[in-house]
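Hi there, hope your week has been kind to you so far. No rush at all, and the record is pasted right below.
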Amino acid sequence: MRTDKASTQTVHAQAGTSVPPGSHHRPRPAAVEGRRGVLALIASSGVWVVQPPRKAEAAFEMESIYEALPGLYSSPSPVLVPRRTFADTAFAVALLRSGYETVDELDCYPMDTWQKEFWLRRRSEWESYRSQNEPLRIEQGDLANPLYFDFIAAMQFATVDKSLREAKQRFKEFCGEEECGEDQYRIVTRDGLYSDDARLPELFAEKFGERLYGKLVGLASPLQLPATETPLALATALEDYFVSQGFALKSEVREREDGTLVITTSGAATLWALQYCTSRRSKALPMYDCAVLQYLLREKLGRRSSVRLVQLSQTGMVTEVAVEQFLNL
């Protein structure tokens, strides 16, 4: 995304920050402008990458997701349940593009390097994955096929994980002659709002849910929210929508007495991807529905939430979403 140098200097002059000469620093996204947006990021509405309720000054701890699981796969195993073809490829594209665009928005890693590493990972893992699923046929690029989508989601989030672990504050990024002139590179400086490396997994999860929601409501078959917006109603509408798009065979939501939402999903399109990423203790997981749900809980109800992945198998998964206190916005 091209940013005019003079415009960039103006934006940062207004914000009271400085930009090194010749650097590329994307303006703060409109979604976080104003008191509500900034406080939502500072307070953090919660993260779809599981953690128990945090103490006020506790650092974000991704590792807690693994404490909730009875065991981890040393390596992913084939999914043992037939899965549905996506109703619309545009739905699958929205899921994948949201992940890429969120990394790009955070300005924490050069995107030309990110794309190269994504491609190399896909190439190195493809034959093993294809052999593991024989005699089923998988065509590369067929995003409507859950077998291929599961693979590509795993490769994408493994690359996201690497960018979060090896995040950079300032870097050189290829952008081509048309966008950047003869040099074909630009210097990118990360926005101070996202400068804390320890919070990047949290920020990624938060911005990812927001971005994905924006895409889903704009599809030809859009996500529609219920007239009555309660945690249970929002979660049920969201899971029903994902099932209607072919993302899972079935997904049920129930609410416990303490307000925790328990989501039981069978035949999800990311069962292999979740095995792959959790086996590597990834700092980001392709839990698309939970990402959107946490965004809705924050924006519609002003509620913080945390997620626990409590069961993961070759046929299904169970997640718990603890709906916590109201945010003081």
In short: The CA atoms of residues 172 and 187 lie 5 Å apart. Residues 1-23, 25-61 have pLDDT under 50 and may be disordered. Residues 32-169+196-326 form one domain. The chain has one domain: 32-169+196-326.
